[in-house]
Amino acid sequence: MSTQRDLDMVHLRLILVSGKTQDFTFSPNDSATDIAKHVFDNWPEGWEEERVSSPSILRLIFQGRFLHGNVALGALKLPPSRTTVMHLVARETLPEPNSNGQRNREKTTESNCCLLL
After folding, report:
1. What is the pTM of this model?
2. Which candidate, 116, 46, 115, 58, places its Cα nearest to that of 90?
C-alpha cells in the first residue's frame, strides 16, 4: 500500500552520455545540487567508467536545459507517479542565464561547441 509520502516522491531516470541509465527516487524538495550529491555518494554499479572526482561537476539536463543547483524538483511540476528522464553530465561550469532565463547568445571569442561521440 502506498503512503501519501510515496505518492509525493519524484522518480527520475538519469541517463549518462554513454547511454547508461539508473532510476532514483527523490523528494520534490530536493535540489539539483542535492541530486548530484546523492548520485555521487551512491554511484551505481556499472557506471564505474564514468565516475567523476566531485559531485560539484555533475549537472542535470531537463528538456534541453541545464538545471542550476538551487532548482528544486517540485518547481519543475513533474507528472506525479511517472518516471521523468533527465540527462546527467560532467561539466565544470554552466552557461549563465540572461534576464529572460535564456542562455546569453552574444558573440564571443569563446566556443560553446560540444561533441558527443
Report:
1. 0.74
2. 58
